[in-house]
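The freezer alarm interrupted the setup, so I double-checked each line after restarting. Inputs confirmed:
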Amino acid sequence: MTVINGYEQSDREQKLDILNLPSLEEQAKAIIPTGGFGYIVGGAEDNWTLRQNTKAFAHAQIVPKALSNIENPDLSTSIFGIPLKTPVMMAPAAAQGLAHSQGEKDTAKGVAAVGGLMSQSTYSSTSIADTQAAAPDAPQFFQLYMSKDWTFNESLLDEAKKAGAKAIILTVDATVDGYREADIINNFQFPIPMANLTKFSEGDGKGKGIGEIYASAAQKISEADVRRIAEYTDLPVIVKGIESPEDALRAIGAGAAGIYVSNHGGRELNGGPAAFDVLPAIAKAVNHQVPIIFDSGVRRGSHVFKALAAGADLVAFARPVIYGLALGGALGVQSVFEEIDHELAITMQLAGTQTIADVKHAPLTHFNYED
Amino acid sequence: MTVINGYEQSDREQKLDILNLPSLEEQAKAIIPTGGFGYIVGGAEDNWTLRQNTKAFAHAQIVPKALSNIENPDLSTSIFGIPLKTPVMMAPAAAQGLAHSQGEKDTAKGVAAVGGLMSQSTYSSTSIADTQAAAPDAPQFFQLYMSKDWTFNESLLDEAKKAGAKAIILTVDATVDGYREADIINNFQFPIPMANLTKFSEGDGKGKGIGEIYASAAQKISEADVRRIAEYTDLPVIVKGIESPEDALRAIGAGAAGIYVSNHGGRELNGGPAAFDVLPAIAKAVNHQVPIIFDSGVRRGSHVFKALAAGADLVAFARPVIYGLALGGALGVQSVFEEIDHELAITMQLAGTQTIADVKHAPLTHFNYED
Amino acid sequence: MTVINGYEQSDREQKLDILNLPSLEEQAKAIIPTGGFGYIVGGAEDNWTLRQNTKAFAHAQIVPKALSNIENPDLSTSIFGIPLKTPVMMAPAAAQGLAHSQGEKDTAKGVAAVGGLMSQSTYSSTSIADTQAAAPDAPQFFQLYMSKDWTFNESLLDEAKKAGAKAIILTVDATVDGYREADIINNFQFPIPMANLTKFSEGDGKGKGIGEIYASAAQKISEADVRRIAEYTDLPVIVKGIESPEDALRAIGAGAAGIYVSNHGGRELNGGPAAFDVLPAIAKAVNHQVPIIFDSGVRRGSHVFKALAAGADLVAFARPVIYGLALGGALGVQSVFEEIDHELAITMQLAGTQTIADVKHAPLTHFNYED
Amino acid sequence: MTVINGYEQSDREQKLDILNLPSLEEQAKAIIPTGGFGYIVGGAEDNWTLRQNTKAFAHAQIVPKALSNIENPDLSTSIFGIPLKTPVMMAPAAAQGLAHSQGEKDTAKGVAAVGGLMSQSTYSSTSIADTQAAAPDAPQFFQLYMSKDWTFNESLLDEAKKAGAKAIILTVDATVDGYREADIINNFQFPIPMANLTKFSEGDGKGKGIGEIYASAAQKISEADVRRIAEYTDLPVIVKGIESPEDALRAIGAGAAGIYVSNHGGRELNGGPAAFDVLPAIAKAVNHQVPIIFDSGVRRGSHVFKALAAGADLVAFARPVIYGLALGGALGVQSVFEEIDHELAITMQLAGTQTIADVKHAPLTHFNYED
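Predicted 3D structure, all chains:
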């Protein structure tokens, strides 16, 4: 165990024997300090949207294709020409040092081990360069929480580009911190610095609440920002936090190279619909102009299948990965991805789908199940 | 603590550290005597409507507008030309002396502190004049439980007008007391006088059950009464307890200057729909002819947002405020409003809405969630 | 207490202080012997239909009429020209000696005390004449479980007519006993004779299971039987156990003078819909040709209101009455009816309905609430 | 008790006093070793589809026909000209030696005792010939898990035909083993040989997990396989595991003589709809071209009725039968079928249906009940 500012970080490095991803939460809770765990697990307000996110997968059902003559389903896919061995990617998630002393470096290693896609958060515990260096040949995206200070934004984007980031994920659904009761109960202050924030004039994030950190971030984000970042970086810009067809089209009109359907895992706006419920209409509107990434509530191979069939091109998640990180470091992260890939492969075979393209064309039906 | 007729009233005066409004109920229960608490918390019959009131906010969901380029949402609004710093107002609620020795006086102070709108109940523990004097410069409405005795009604209306009431709220959904089981279980009799009732021939309400008090009130209320009160006072009359488009239009036809959509917090008719569920059709029928106030079940910033987006101009609540009153007097009331305003401000920012007018135009979607 | 064949019958005669009808079940369970209680409370198979019966009242909601200018609602109504002080009647229910030593005699007295309508079951513990004599001036209907032996049927009908029965209720939904698990668990045999069965060649029912008793009853019941009974008695025949519009029309075509919508309180066919859910379509088809009686699941004044508004002319129930009988004899029965009438009167006032005719014309709305 | 490889098999032979089939699960759990019980009871992933299977019977409701003039309902029916005394058949289920030392032999005897239809699984504990010999005059179907090795398939089909199998059930929904968490938790390996697998080159199944056994089975199954098996055996081929109208028609086009609607009791694909929910559309598409067998979730007589009314010709189940086998051997199996037949007969009488043909034409209604 590593102790930093009194906060006990896991140092574990081991493969995990995983029954299923939901069961990791309890295990991780036992080893992540209360404040850190509350920050990771918590949603906004009364967690209504957070709960619906996972329950909503019951609203669509897989219609298997019998006699489909397939075997050994192939999970490989790609985005922006980048080949991936799995459609399940790591969502950008802040402050992974709360879970493990190696933070995002170990996450990147674990994701690389399964041939997946890593994305880094602006609020990472480890720096852009260090995280990329942990898995130098694996693809990474960089997620930007836009600062009010454009000099700082450009500095981050420069660093991301230099490190080899393949795309920028611009988060637009977190212009203020959600009302997270777990953090209030725990009076949570980040005990660990955020590496990228050392360039902020106001410090490195350590000893601050998430609200104070967001305070440095821009509240006002507009279509012009999408364009500006795309032009500045000449990288694909993915707009994260889209929940309506209209906004998806506006983002694309502003130059977005990808749409990221998400409600931030129920951590920001509470009272909006489950992300899975809004996905089909957005996918219909986007109509394959740009790829769609989806997250919020994914815990099962069948959830991944349903999200792909409902219009997603890649499916992301974070909390279970962070629990795997706490429990096993890079190997734990790898185990988490292997588990969900294993569940997905079984689902694909049983649904009669050979490839991810087949899954994307698979029909869903909509009987009325509450959960 | 103040003891009156053996009833122990809170004397607390302090700001509250509030996690969320629902959590206040348990705290208030610990300090409000059983009979008083039962009166405040209770609904009618098996509380079916009471429960649906809050659950029904799940029936509509907020569709955030991304890339909206806004910051620092502005909660200010107005009604009848009266500027307000928040769209959340104090619903008329009886007998607040059950919660605190200062009763409605402290409520008025707390509401004034946040720039909100106070409404007084006919069955207040403190008199119209005293309650207004507690916050002399702040706007107040006076709610009338119409007596069978018009002399008495006119006397109350005179006093309200003299005290500066900006409007009259005529309650029409409580022509008999609801079947409140908590009061029956507790054999509840009001231990504290109702100041306005000292003018009733039959006494001041002390030592009576709510049923006996209602017995002095008029059961028969008609459109003619709306007209009569409007003409007598020359004040805007808001008809409270409207649950259908037809009745809203009838009330407006009778001279109502405002419609108050409410089922009395589930305390009167049980078996009617959740107030939130009937709001959209009423708002469509009213079509901005007069402002709409809404209450029943509101506990969260996201609820306030949804009610405004569904057609309300102001959103009221009472039980959480009374709990705050018991726990902290005027400062406690202020804390309650600050909490829900804080949650609302976050919701507005995350939904991409700058002003209350924006919220009123914000789209809601309707996926099928039970609760 | 009276002990008969080792079975302990209540002898209580007292008014009850009733909070609500559902709360009586637990109280009655404490004084009715296990086998008898199981027989009374039990439904068929896994009790699915029994549970839906009460939950289904959530599927329609009362729309109150504001500003309706009414007071002191009037619960009086009539059927077949018989004046009644309440639209709530006693459903035919077997073997009330299981609950009280005076059995149906006390039930009849209690019902008469509130000016209501009594109905006797073929399987009553007390005889037709004795039950009628207990409340000689009060109206009663006689319910017939048709025997395979027409001589016996005619004998019962003769006795009912002689005693002054105003109508015959022919039960058609119980041509075999439902699969009642409580009776199986308790290996329940009737400890008390059924007075009317002393005329059956095979005995009086004592020491038999309900299945054996039903075995003497006719399984085959047809439209011809309705006609035959109507002609034989020259009394109105009400067909009980109708769950579809088609069957209601067929019964009327066969001479039925009334339709009784019921699923036998969930005690016979399991897996059919809640009785309340099928009522509106039946009422629409019947279109006031004959009166409609409704039972199954009614426990609250608001349930009675909803059933009337959905198309019923009278609303019946039995289990809560039998619990009241056990707890207080005739006075207990009276208390049960007074309680539900009280709740109904409040509901009527708050809904803005002056008379039962008004209730029958009151609108219901249908938001989607599960329970 | 028989102990084989340390696994304790029941030897009980007795009639059972059954309250209802769901109650058998707990009783069986007490006598079947943990690993075996987990294998029998378990579903896939988070058991979502497994749970919906039984809950879904709430989605349709029986509309009884009153005054139908019927008695003594007749449960007899037939398939492919084979007369059966009950429409409830034994679903093919693997490894019944886990429940009882006599395995499928006792199941066959018990099924024969009620005049029902037995189906054998490829993965039976007893051989095709032995199981048939246990009830030599009773009809049996043979279920094929197609091997990658056609020589082996042909050998099994030869043996089945020689033993007198009346039809072949080709399972197509289990081309890989579902993600069964109970087996993972128990690290379950089959302690008992699978008699038919002694012909597999890789052994007899003993000491293997279900995954390893499936590994020998074909993943690729196509319409050509249906044709090939039909031509090879000249027996009717029933395709098991159909969940959509399209697949039903494709199977018929490939020569299927029957359609078996099933999701394998929730043991294979998780996230698909309840089998009962997809049945009506499939039945409509099949339009009586071939008979339809249905399983997944059936536990009650009312479930059998609903499945028949929704389009099934025969209704199968397995888990409750296996519990009966463990608790009472052949007599226990017989008791299970007698219980569900008894419940079905009551349901038929109360619904006004004389024959299975009547049930198939009985209307269902669709009020919205969650469960």
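Quick read of the result. Chain B has a mean pLDDT of 96.
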